[in-house]
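Teaching assistant's notes for section 4

Start the section by putting this record on the projector. Ask students to predict, before seeing the second block, whether Ketosteroid isomerase will look compact or extended. Collect guesses on the board.
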Amino acid sequence: MHPLITTAYAAFNSRDIDTALTTMRPDVRWPKAFEGDFVTGHDAIREYWTRQWGEINPHVTPVAITELPNGRLEVTVHQIVKSLDGTELFNGNVKHIYTLRDGLIQAMELE
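Reveal the predicted structure now:
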């Protein structure tokens, strides 16, 4: 696994926003999968995740990483999303596409 990606997912799953943000550029572009659209920057991601975790409980585990011909990383993840009362809302694989710049995450997209 790619160390940057491993660190980012481990931090997300443990709700350690500060560590997760160290894997990202300050001007990172991030999808608001839970709401649609995108946010840009550390403060916007912190706000989005904090709001998201107040409404749902997602856990995302990378299972495969492929470097695409354009240099981006395609990460297949197993995602389990539960309501705060524990009801399973989603359980399956999705793909996250990362653009890296200067060794940090510049952007993430959902496929």
